[in-house]
Amino acid sequence: MSEINVTPFVDVMLVLLIIFMVAAPLLTTGVPIELPKISTSALPAEDEQPLTISLTADGRLMIQETEIEDITTLIPKLRAIAAERNNNKVFLRADGSISYEAVMRIMGALNQAGFNNIGLVTDSSVPLVSKSDQ
Q: Does the predicted TM-score (pTM) go above 0.70?
């Protein structure tokens, strides 16, 4: 017989591959150190009240509790607010029935006014999928 049988060679190589795949993560352990134990105080609270923009179900636009007449006046008012604030964090609250386009227009206006740190506020107490949707 002049041919070499490679089947046992392939079997041995696959077994070695599996062994190395299992053993490799076990070899990458971290350096054992004992970190110093210190007592710290809580992080300081923000000095400013977070700026909240709200979009109600009937389409009214509010900055904090103040109603804005039109989206065109929103950018100048936000720029004036941005000049007086230390951070650019804004929370955007929108009713669930508001269209995606309306929310994106508000986010674009916030971005134009210099507020790049936008947080979308949601209600986490509502389950994601109700039993009737299943």
A: no
